[in-house]
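Shipment paperwork, digital attachment
Item: protein structure file
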Amino acid sequence: MKIKHWVIGLVCLALISGVVHAAPKKAKSKKLADDGMVLVPAGEFKMGSDKEENEAWYREANALNPFGFNDRLYVDERPSHKVTLPAYKIDKYEVTNAQYRNFLIATGHGVPYTWPRNGYNYSDQQLASWPLDGLRDVATNRFRLDMDVPNMSKADLLSEMKKVNQARDNMPVTSVTWSDANDYCNWAKKRLPTEAEWEKAARGVEGFEYPWGNTWDTKKINTMSENPDAPYSAVGSYPTDVSPYGAYDMAANVSEWVADWYKAYPDAPASDIKYFGEKQRVVRGGVTSSGHYDSVSVVFRAAKRTHLLPNSALIDLGFRCVKDVK
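Attachment content:
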């Protein structure tokens, strides 16, 4: 009976989150395709929310979640408040593996820990220099080619592994710490977005619940993936997960580091959140790999806040950058 009540609570929450409102108006913005960024004009927007907690749902869900939830659903989003920002540009897509690889080649920065495991750190030249037996071992244990590897020629193996890595090029880079993300943005002559910049770019001046508007729709985003090695999609794979300014994948795909420490908003009500302070960094955006909890629309809301230790490096955690407009 307890599980039944919890399921009913989830359904009710999803329905409440998906209340139909007027069709969203597209914000006017100049898309800057030359540098892969979109413009967010200067001005005011509504940040945060004043949503009420659903204590019954929280208790039921927390009892069933073996890892537990750190916080209530909405308490760290309060109060809704107005923020005025100057104009800035934000990456249209999350930073990709290919972009991050260029940074590593230029700087000698360490590779994400997942790359040696899946073979993405090997160049075509390195693979071509290996003997056939070694190449077959890498094809099986790193690239995990689902083919007749023992009987494939070297040329065929190289061709198939190249296809795999080319497909990975346009995936969002993950398994990076906050410092890794910050270093990349600085190298690219950009910076990590502030929490306010990220939220405005995601929800626009009308304060949408989701980047596309106020109506929850599971078909607009990648809510779940069964691939343990890549529980997300190539950037821009869901053209309906787009913000009023033309930034993609801000509701789902991978979560994203932002610049801020995880702190209470100005004039926030008293709470017992022990993580507030200069201990953990804010993470924004829903993820596709954390299990069935992510099918609940609350996870993908533009105002939703998450937080992690700065040295965290998760397979569903990436980032994007911003640039000041002068």
